[in-house]
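Appendix C reproduces, verbatim, an entry submitted by the partner laboratory led by Prof. M.T., so that reviewers can inspect both the input and the predicted structure.
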Amino acid sequence: MRRVKMGQLPELPYSVEEAVNRLRVNVSFAGNDVRRIMVISTVPDEGKSFVTMHLWRQMAGAGSPSLLLDADMRKSVLLSDYGIEAEDKQPLKGTTHYLASDALELEDVIYHTEIEGGDILPNADNVINPSLLIEGERFEQLLKSASEKYRYVFIDAPPLDLVSDGELIGSHCDGAILVIHAGSTPKRLIRNSVRQLERANCPLLGVVLNRVEASKGGYYGKRYGGKYYGKYYVTEEADKN
């Protein structure tokens, strides 16, 4: 299996690291049957890819073999945001390549990283309409095979409010974590996201209230990358009021 390096994975401030650790612990309480976890948001720029990356990193680092599966096939940001490239300098193949070609094996698109127990299946080529790829049997088999090999498969999915991809992906998952931008995402859209997950028969494991400013009562308020990332936690259900 080939290896990739992540050139832009900075060390997090202590408070943010602890917040992600709290999320990791809560996820571990979800039960042994919860293996395929979709991390999703309602609208863009709520921090779902950040949450997915660091939850995967911490879970693997804690001894639970984990795969980060990039299923945001329309507008993936993981490769560019985290400087991910192959150690052998050859082009990467990823999610869309695998789903569109029967000639590729899963081992051809999964890569080892410098994180022990943490592998990644990136999306190296965005497509205009991945719905047909998600609806195909190959996507279902991908998740089945991955969840047999890894304790956790964390799936970075596109926002629910934009396209149907997230709902389709959720129908193959054991649960979802909904990332909400504190004080920004309208409640009506959040309620609609919860309904979409229910329609997909994807249990809502909890919510992550993201970017909470310390002045507004968040537990953590350190700045990271010019934005606040704080008050990470998982609740039993999203606020439906």
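The first helix runs from residue 14 to 28. Additional entries are available on request from the coordinating office.
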